[in-house]
Amino acid sequence: MNFHQPPVTFVGRVDLKVQDLDRSVAFYHDVIGFKVLEKTERSAKFTADGKNVLLSVEQPDDVMPKQRRTTGLYHFALLLPRRADLANILKHFVLMKFPLQGASDHLVSEALYLADPDGNGIEIYIDRPASDWTWNESQIVMTTDSLDAESLLEEDKGGTWNGLPAGTVMGHIHLHVSELAKTEEFYSKGLGFDVVSRYGPQALFISTGKYHHHIGLNTWNGVGAPKPAENSVGLGSFSLVLPDEESEKETIARLSSIGAEITEENGVMVAIDPSGNRIMLEIA
Question: Which of 9, 155, 252, 269 is the most buried (most CB within 10 A)?
Answer without folding.
Answer: 9
